[in-house]
Amino acid sequence: MSTTTKRAYNFNAGPSALPLEVLQKAQAELVDFQGTGMSVMELSHRSATFEAVHNEAIANLRKLFAVPDNYEIVFLQGGASLQFSMIPMNFLTEGKRANYVLTGSWSEKALKEAKFSGEAVASVSTKENKYKNIPTEVEVGENDAYVHITSNNTIYGTQWKTFPETGNVPLIADMSSDIMSKPVDISKFGMIYAGAQKNLGPSGVTVAIIRKDLLESANTNLPTMLKYDTFVANNSLYNTPPTFGIYMLGEVLKWIEAQGGLEQVAKNNEAKAALIYDAIDNSNGFYYGHAEEGSRSLMNITFRVADEELEKQFLKEAEEAGFVGLSGHRSVGGCRASTYNAVPTEACQALADFMKAFQAKHQ
Ligand SMILES: *Cc1c(COP(=O)(O)O)cnc(C)c1O
Questions:
Q1: pLDDT by residue (tens digit) across 331-353?
Q2: Residue with the nearest Cα to atom 12 of ligand 1?
Q3: 25-258 has which fold?
Q4: How far apart are the C-alpha atoms of 163 and 172, rounded to whole Å?
Q5: I need a labelling partner for 20 at 20 to 30 A (CA). Which of 93, 119, 120, 320 fits?
Q6: If DSSP codes are grouped into helix, strand and coil, which group holds residue 173?
Q7: Under CATH, which number does the domain 261-362 receive?
Q8: Where does the chain hold its CATH 3.90.1150.10 domain(s)?
Q9: Which residues neighbour 234 within 8 Å (Cβ) at sequence distance 6 or greater?
Q10: How far apart are CA 8 and CA 82, in angstroms?
Q11: What residues does CATH 3.40.640.10 cover in the chain?
């Protein structure tokens, strides 16, 4: 890291930290991209220069995430939130039921949107346990169009460690907050989607990975921009895509590759989260985690300071010490450290040290 660049200890939940190397590369080529005399933002999305950026990003995503050939990769807009609507519009076909596993606020929102398209139910929910855990089993009905899960619960700080078996019923996962944080067996899924702004780049791009047979049996009587087939048939260039976001996503993918790929990224993420969970677990109850141990997220670490007054003090002193984004989501309170791919180990170590020092000072 350049000694003249001031970088915050950024634990924001999203938009969130981007790799410094990627930001610096974007800065270096900002006003003259590859000798064009234009920035990426000023290129036509129909130009060969942009198309190469676009296609390289898709190809690298396929390679690094090991996406099989029978899946399409598309770039969409409207965030993960628009996918909550598009999924049932496209895949909740006549006479079928949509099956949602509720593990937090984002799955609740996804279910709410599905109800506009047809029959949608919460087959399993961990709400009664304050969303502290991931269920051990899901219930699959033979008439289900799909089963929807949220792989990582950004607000409550829980994460699926192994994915449920759904037999012939397609499994669809909102992976917004843990996509490409570890290798995943894509073949278990009918569809995976994620807003880019947590692990993949800036906000504005949404990635969807969709199995071809789902596309073939999807509803067709839909507005053009709400139909996946429009994006598939036009290589995600039906209308103007978020060109700068796609360029940045491509650079983040190259950065992931330079880290050693997803196996290495997963190891780094485990080690980073362990630094902070250890500070919680070794605090003799001064701090406590929200999530049950077996369901803990490696991306969003949710915790409390047992003494409520001290918790306010903790957040205040942390901010003064240069830590950003440690307040829990406004709906749940407490503290949350988001440790996405681009958050350096050094920042996690600094937070763990700060937590220990704060405890020693105030206990
Ligand atoms: C952030 C987030 C969303 C919402 O994403 P938008 O891009 O803002 O629509 C949905 N699901 C999960 C799991 C998230 O973390």
A1: 888 999 999 999 999 999 999 99
A2: 176
A3: Aspartate Aminotransferase; domain 2 (3.40.640)
A4: 11
A5: 320
A6: strand
A7: 3.90.1150.10
A8: 261-362
A9: none
A10: 31
A11: 25-258
**Å from CA of 36 to ligand 1 middle:** 35
Q: Indicate if the pLDDT at residue 2 is higher than 70.
A: no
* Tokens, residue 163: 């994915």
How far are the Cα atoms of 90, 221, 338 from residue 224, in angstroms, in the given order? 11, 9, 36
Question: d(Cα 148, Cα 128) in Å, to the nearest integer?
Answer: 19
| Cα dihedral 284, 285, 287, 290 sign | positive
What residues form the annotated binding site? 46, 80-81, 106, 154, 174, 197, 239-240
Instruction: Please say whether the beta carbons of 196 and 213 come within 8 A.
Output: no
Asked whether the beta carbons of 298 and 339 are under 8 A apart, the reply is yes
The candidate with the shortest Cα–Cα distance to 338, out of 152, 65, 201, 207, is 152
pTM of the predicted protein model: 0.97
Whether residue 106 contacts residue 154, with contact meaning beta carbons closer than 8 Å, is answered with yes
Whether 106 is a known active-site residue: answer yes
Q: What is the model's pLDDT at position 212?
A: 98
Binding residues for pyridoxal 5'-phosphate: 80-81, 106, 154, 174, 197, 239-240
143-169 as b/e, with b when 16 or more CB fall inside 10 Å? ebbbbbbbbbbbbbbbbbeeebebeeb
Report pLDDT digits (tens) over 272-325. 999 999 999 999 999 999 999 999 999 999 999 999 999 999 999 999 999 999
Mutate to test the pocket of ligand 1, among 76, 77, 81 (most ligand atoms within 8 A of CB): 81
Task: Name the residue with the closest Cα to ligand 1, atom 2.
Answer: 176
